[in-house]
Fold tRNA wybutosine-synthesizing protein 4.
Amino acid sequence: VQDTGGSSAVSKCSAAARGYIQDRFLRLLVGRQRRRAPLVHRGYYIRARAVDHCVQDFLLKTQSHPRTQILSLGAGFDSLYFRLKDMGLLHHTVVYEVDFPNVACQKATLIKRMKELSALVRDTGGEGLGVTAFSGEDYKLLGVDLSELSELERALEEAGLDNEVPTLFIAEVVLTYMENSRSDALIQWAAEHFSQACFLLYEQMHPEDPFGRVMQQHFSQLNSALHSLAQYPDCEAQQRRFFEKGWTECSVMDMNEFFTCCTPEDEQQRVQALEPFDEYEEWHLKCSHYFVLTASNGMEPSWTPLLSNMTVSHRDSPVRMAGSITAAVCAVHSESSGLRRYGHYSVLIKPNVILTTGGFGDEHGQHCRMRNFHVLIKHAGYWKAGCVKKENPDKRWDERLYHTVSCLSNSLALVVGGRTSPSSAGLGMLGLKFPETCNASDPDDITVELVSLQPAAEPAALRWRHTTTEVIFKGEKYLFLYGGRSAAEPVLGDWYFLHTQELSCTVIPVEGPVPESRHSHSACSWKGGVLIAGGLGAAEQPLGSVFFLRELEHGFQWQTVETQPPLIPRYSHTAHVHDGKLLLVGGVWFHSSSVPGVTVIDLMTGLCLDYMINVEHLEWPLMLHNHSSVFLPNEKELLLIGGGGNCFSFGTHLNPEPVSLSLSNILTSN
């Protein structure tokens, strides 16, 4: 548990060094400094932002009181006191910090050794008395085990904590490491023993969905299990907990909601522009698995730092599911570990032959950008998997992620866009040539030749997280290249019509209301045009709109597809059209109480139904974002390939095997 505190301090320090948070004191308190990934920086930014938002609100609301107190439980090497003191916010406030005795002693030694720290807090020489590790006029550092409540109470009393003045308790990922009976007792003690009290809690939630399972496993492996999750798995349960333990006011929100509602727009934009970033799914999933809670008792005026910013919460209505679809591990009669990847693309190049290219995954036991192409062939009722032989292996594939692959004929496919790193320019176009006829039962018979193309349309392809979809205009086939993002533009809203024979851009008139810019959306061919659904918009907010680009005599027209009930905004899903129905598969949305399964939209009536995916037959978490899917219309079977991602600091999860969903029930009953 103490190691998690040290690790958090290093991550906060790295975030401060990159400008996410303003904190010049962390580096003095954290010995080792390591650069963390942008995803980790964002995660620690939102944590620090939430705590600061609530602490400063408490100090503002209580500034007319002659004395106030802050009690930070399990404070570790946090710099809160020094930042508040430096900002001149502690005129009449005493800060008490409590942690394990050895942590408190280490921190006290650092404070005395560092001039910048000791200059801010005047040492009054009270250390060495009982559990006090350091004592200043307005700062007391105590070494006590929080789970020993009577000992904690005695130590705080000796240090001068007054239960009659307004007091803010802070527990930032602390209580969950204690047995529930002990953390509950602490919450109740704070409510009962202080006449004017506020409590700020920041912790994990949602242990049972795929991301939650990876998160739990991570903390268990660190031997620091999250005890509160089983009994208090979500925002509602935590709110009930505080009411039951004697708090009269309590509000709570997950961190997606906090970032959207409590962080000014210009600040959101500042943070989003600090580093090249392309891990939106994991950022939003991390935020949906942490919450900030504020509770108060006896405060005049009442202390509600979250309520004033709360919009109509997306937690108000749980997602109504029309039914469930059972997931089954796909019977693959050969080695399929090459399909453990995400950010890849899978395409049906012949009946029952699926080619998968690119992405990030597991190659020979190493996590890397994938060089190998992979093929799945269905023969005699089961799938065979294998690596594809490249005819010219020296030709650069560029190990791309978030590209698209479109079949132009029965022997040629076109790769469009993709990226290596999010800071580098998008990649152009590449041809994939394969034999017109091949033995459709043996993966070893499939060969692919990489063909360099320098088409005039190349500049249009320098993007990723876009879509390319076949449309027909005046009997001619075109690829409709739409949306995505580039190194320079975090979101694109432009489009191109790519003539499939000449690979040149053709100007075709388009009328109607232009959809807002987006990436990580889905696009499907339908009635000669294209259906665009969802995506991530300019403010990194999921979109719930569906558009149909419809063919007219002289060009195309954008039309809005109305759905009832409205489609829940999502992105990073896949999509297919079958028999007048649009199927949306997986993705990420902000409803933290559930994960997207399969949504079926009737394109005639607009009826929109959500189905959950029943994963009881899978022994591992099924993460359905950054995946690919292939629909086999004859069998009404959906094949899910790959998916997963880098789960914050909890490790990388890759879905280990392809999964099959039988959709015959929902496609006939709808």
In short: The chain is about 20% helix and 30% strand. The chain has a mean pLDDT of 92. The domain at 321-662 is CATH 2.120.10.80 (Neuraminidase). The chain has two domains: 1-297, 321-662.
